[in-house]
Design goal:
Distance between the termini: 26 Å
Helix content: under 10%
Number of helices: 1
Structural class: mainly beta
Radius of gyration: 18 Å
Largest sheet: 5 strands, parallel, barrel
Order of helices and strands: HEEEEEEEEE
Length: about 190
Amino acid sequence: MKKFLAGLFLAGSTLTMGASFELGLLSPTQLQTPSSNINGVRIGLIWTENRNVEGLDLNLIASKKSNFTGLSLGGFYDETTGNFTGVKIPFWGINRVGGNLTGVQFGSLNMVDRHMLGAQFGLVNLIGSGEGLQVAAFNKANSMKGVQFGFVNYTERLQGIQIGFVNMAKNSQIFEVLPLVNFNLSF
């Protein structure tokens, strides 16, 4: 919740302090160049691409950026090649973060290549490592410290609990595969 409020505050505050505005149809047909940084509001219709974006990001179809901080709404495909800090609420699309995620992701397919600190809510959640909460039909993490809640949960290294129909944790204190609940509480 703190990250969500921080994202909203950041989005509002950047609009008043030296803010920039982006309006894009199909990159590079947009007000700013794809290599520009946006601090303020970015509105994309088909495909908008910028370097770093801070503030409010509204996209109808798809977008790409290097790093992001703030609140991102809409879009069926959202790619952040670097780090994402804030909240992503799509039109049930694909969210990919190539670096670290600090915050919350909603979507049908949520992917974080490196580390997640926060929560993911979707149909499929995939992370390299994470601390927090994953809620989906299928959750996968190489390393997870926290809770996985879903139909199928999988992790190599669990420090926490899995709740679901099939729970797989290679380092489980009981069995690697268990129905309903699996856990490893040794730290």
